[in-house]
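Final report, Chapter 2: Outcomes

The project's central promise was a pipeline that accepts a single protein chain and returns its three-dimensional structure in a standardized token representation, suitable for archiving and comparison. That pipeline is now operational. To close this chapter, we reproduce one record exactly as it appears in the project archive, with the input sequence first and the structure output second.
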Amino acid sequence: MTTLGVFDSGFGGLTVLRALLPQLPGARFLYVGDTARLPYGAKSQATIARYAVESARFLESKGSEHLVIACNTATALALDDIRAAVSIPVTGVIEPVVAMSSHSFPAADTLILATTATVESHVYREHCLRAGLNPTEKACPLLVPLVEEGWIDHPVTREVLRIYLAEALEMCSPRLVILGCTHYPLIAPLVEETLRSLGCEAAVVDSAEVTAEAVAAQVKKETGLSSAASTAVFECYATDSVEKFRRLGSHFLGQPIPQVHLLNLGG
């Protein structure tokens, strides 16, 4: 059975795992949520890289044959460090999204919604420019805590999102909006609804779905894994409260999480 490791600073990467499970039904997944040290979005590049490498090495030690960095911040700030630290293929969530976007919407004006750290890294901007897209980045720091609170369709979330999008639309007129944080797929319908209310008809790209499709295609090519194989299985590890991870994680994964293992990665 092919084993894939999936890593995030917390819960958001479970949206990538959620998309991967039906794509690779014959696989075994190991998921690490570094919940004791989140959010990564407010930390330095050196700290993010150190934390991410520790999780990557753990997943490799547990038998992972492919590593998915299901965290936009870690992908933006630590991908090279992770690839240097492990000997297995590593896929982040930025390259597949930009590649698909440029293929489907060539030369499009593109709005990227992301955490402050991801925006300040300008990695999305650099990838978009190389792919021929015209990017505008917008940091949305309040969205992650609102999503983790479970306020997916709450008046506060609606108002915060409306403010962010209105500010962004003063800077650009996008044809494409990339959800550059793995928490954001849970509010994708709300993003689209709010854009329409503001007079914007841009397409909304779910980075979790696009990343899952890219990883599945690569893994099937590497391993010959059949899509008709048995149901995928997964194990979850968290570096903080396992009960909280089970409770909140089930919303991101879209199904109950029967067991979570407590993982100590140090300080």
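Archive annotation: Residues 113 and 179 are 5 Å apart (CA to CA).
This record, like all others produced under the grant, will remain available to the consortium after the project formally closes.
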